[in-house]
Amino acid sequence: VQLVESGGGLVQAGGSLRLSCAASGSTFSINAMGWYRQAPGKQRELVAGITSSGSSTNYADSVKGRFTISRDNAKNTMYLQMNSLKPEDTAVYYCNAFDPLSRISWGQGTQVTVSS
């Protein structure tokens, strides 16, 4: 599975961005998917996850109520709607996908910068 993120950019605090993660290749094998982020000098952390059907989601406490994860399996695309952005949300955002054997694919990342 190949994953490509898009939608990152520079936004002012309080603004919104919508990230997309487009999957290609063996997309029929994709199970759960997720968004992670990594800020300079920090470890990569989970932002949000979603099950294969999209019926269940989970979020990091720091983004609950502000971010929404979703997926459109017909388009092989996952999204992350980010509202009320804060400077501390600045990071490179990565998407990942699990197959039935729990093997993980990662995208190349997209930069999100929130100015104060």
Write up what this structure looks like:
0% of the residues lie in helices and 53% in strands. The protein is mainly β and 116 residues long. The strands form two sheets. Strands 2, 4, 5, 6, 9, 10 and 11 form a seven-stranded mixed sheet that branches. A four-stranded antiparallel sheet has the order 1-3-8-7, with no helix packed on it. The protein is globular. The model has no long low-confidence stretch (mean pLDDT 96).
Q: Give the biggest sheet.
A: 7 strands, mixed
Roughly what is the average pLDDT, rounded to an integer?
Answer: 96
Summarize the amount of helix as a percent range: under 10%
Strand content: over 45%
Number of helical segments with 4 or more residues = 0
Structural class: mainly beta
Radius of gyration from the CA trace? Answer: 13 Å
Q: Order of SSEs, N→C?
A: EEEEEEEEEEE
CA distance, first residue to last residue: 37 Å
What is the element layout, followed by pairings?
Elements: E1 2-6, E2 9-12, E3 17-24, E4 33-38, E5 45-50, E6 57-59, E7 67-72, E8 77-82, E9 91-98, E10 104-106, E11 110-115
Parallel strand pairs: 2-11
Antiparallel strand pairs: 1-3, 3-8, 4-5, 4-9, 5-6, 7-8, 9-10, 9-11
